[in-house]
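Sequence only, no structure available. Ideas?
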Amino acid sequence: MSCKFLSSFSADFPYQKKFLPLAKKILKAESKDKSVNVILCSDEEQRVLNRDFRKLDKVTDVLSFEWHEPNFLGEIYIARDQVKRQAPQYDNTYFCELKRVLIHGLLHLCGYDHHTKQERKIMREKENYYYLLAYE
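Reply:
I predicted one. C-alpha cells follow.
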C-alpha cells in the first residue's frame, strides 16, 4: 500500500512525513489497499477542476476523484491558499486544516459522502476519529 504525495508548486508536499503515515492508517482501516495521489494546487486550478467536473464555478478546499484502476484508488486535489484562508474560520493552523481536508478527501475516496444528514453524520464521525488518530 502506498500514498504518493505530489505538489505542483514545490518538490515536497508540506508535512508529508506526518501525513503519509496517517493516510496509510486510514486506507488500511478502510480496507483500501491502493495508491492515492495528493496534489497541492492553486485556487485557480482548483476552481477550474470544480467547474469542469462538478459544474460549480468556485474554489473549494478539496476535491477527490476516484479512479477505477486495480491498484490506484484516486487523486485528491487540495487548494493550498483556500486551506490557508479558511484555517482561522475553523480555529485551525494551516497544518491542522491541511490534515482535516486530507482526511476528508481520503474518506471520499473510501466511499463516504455528505449529501444527506445521515451521510454527513457518519462522515463527520469518521473525520473526527481519524483526526484524533493522527495524534496517537
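The domain at 3-133 is CATH 3.40.390.30 (Collagenase (Catalytic Domain)).
Hope that gets you unstuck.
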